[in-house]
């Protein structure tokens, strides 16, 4: 995980939380008439976590390019002209990390299981 968004620890906590929910649902499901396999619930975990972790990784890489003034949006600009561009690109960059409802993403994936 690239460090440029400070999201690594949060991602680890989310991983544990979603894995815990998946395992809890697996054990609850074992009492049903048609129990699902542990592989189904691990796939559920993967389908919830992988897209988000991949997006965090990619946007962190992009943020690093901005912090180091090496982003394609800054090519050909002098330092003074870069500053407002960097400000605008960073303003709401990480909002999605903190506002996405992980429980809702999990529930949606569980409904498709």
From TrEMBL:
GO terms classed as biological process: secondary metabolite biosynthetic process
SUPFAM superfamilies (alphabetical): FAD/NAD(P)-binding domain
Keywords from the UniProt entry: FAD, Flavoprotein, Monooxygenase, Oxidoreductase
UniProt xrefs under InterPro entries: FAD/NAD-bd_sf, FAD_monoxygenase
Cofactor(s) of this protein: FAD
Annotated GO MF terms: monooxygenase activity
Annotated family: Belongs to the paxM FAD-dependent monooxygenase family.
Protein's recorded name: Salicylate hydroxylase
Source organism per UniProt: Fusarium torreyae
């Amino acid at each position: 995980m690239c460090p440029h968004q400070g999201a690594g620890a949060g991602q680890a906590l989310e991983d544990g939380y979603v894995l815990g929910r998946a395992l809890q649902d697996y054990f609850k499901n074992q009492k049903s008439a048609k129990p699902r396999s542990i592989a189904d619930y691990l796939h559920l975990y993967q389908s919830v976590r992988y897209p988000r972790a991949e997006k965090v990784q990619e946007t962190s890489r992009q943020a690093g390019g901005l912090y180091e003034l090496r982003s394609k949006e800054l090519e050909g600009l002098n330092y003074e002209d870069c500053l407002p561009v960097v400000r605008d690109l960073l303003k709401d960059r990480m909002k999605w990390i903190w506002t996405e409802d992980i429980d809702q993403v999990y529930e949606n994936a569980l409904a498709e299981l």
